[in-house]
Specification:
This protein has about 190 residues and is of the alpha+beta class. It has one domain (about 45-190). It has helices at about 1-20, 65-100, 105-125, 155-165, 175-190; strands spanning about 55-65, 130-135, 145-150. Helix 2 (about 65-100) packs antiparallel against helix 3 (about 105-125) and helix 3 (about 105-125) crosses helix 4 (about 155-165). The relative contact order is 0.16. The mean pLDDT is about 75.
Length: about 190
């Protein structure tokens, strides 16, 4: 048994000495190559579809396996976007116009002004114009509808002016030119 223990120790010592004496080859990892970027073409978008002093504009996309549903989605999205832009602009105009005017009862005037503004915006959204519409089909067979719409800023100003000048509470202090100037200043901030 002593021989086998000596043989075992000799083999073990040899293995340890051999393993300590060897050097490992360092494997260098290859750099990961990124795939090239792909430019996404978004129809009905770009500078020509931005809001200007003359028009509120918005664009959106709707996607579905059904052509009609993709268009309905795009229209719903784009109308919501346009309504949001118009409402926030009208809200800013309201705040700035009322604060710069000397209204008799500012709190009551603000509430009335905002209420009338909401009604006008809802009415005017019916008068939107589609300025771009394109439909594509994806590799998966789905439809994508791209839509851009616009709404005349002057139509909004004029309708608001008409509505405000008929209101008993607001017509006393209402100044069309001042309101229009305030509206145009807010529109120029959107660009």
């Amino acid at each position: 048994m002593k021989i086998s223990s000596n043989v075992f120790l000799t083999i073990l010592t040899s293995v340890v000495l051999i393993s300590c004496g060897t050097t490992k080859e360092v494997v260098k990892e290859k750099p990961v190559q990124l795939k090239e970027e792909t430019l996404i073409v978004s129809h009905c978008a770009g500078e020509e579809f931005f809001t200007t002093k003359e028009y509120f504009r918005a664009n959106s996309i709707g996607e579905s396996s059904d052509h009609t549903i993709s268009k309905k989605k795009a229209l719903a999205n784009v109308k919501a976007e346009l309504a949001g832009a118009v409402n926030s602009t009208v809200k800013a105009v309201t705040d700035n116009y009322i604060k710069s005017s000397e209204m008799n009862n500012i709190e009551q005037a603000e509430e009335r002004f905002e209420e009338l503004s909401r009604v006008v915006v809802e009415q005017k959204l019916v008068g939107i114009t589609t300025i771009c519409e394109k439909t594509t089909r994806t590799a998966e067979g789905r439809y994508k509808t791209y839509i851009a719409i616009e709404l005349s800023a002057m139509d909004i100003v004029n309708k608001l002016s008409e509505t405000l000048s008929k209101d008993d509470i607001l017509k006393v202090d209402y100044d069309y030119e001042k309101f229009k100037k305030t509206f145009e200043e807010e529109l120029s901030k959107l660009r």
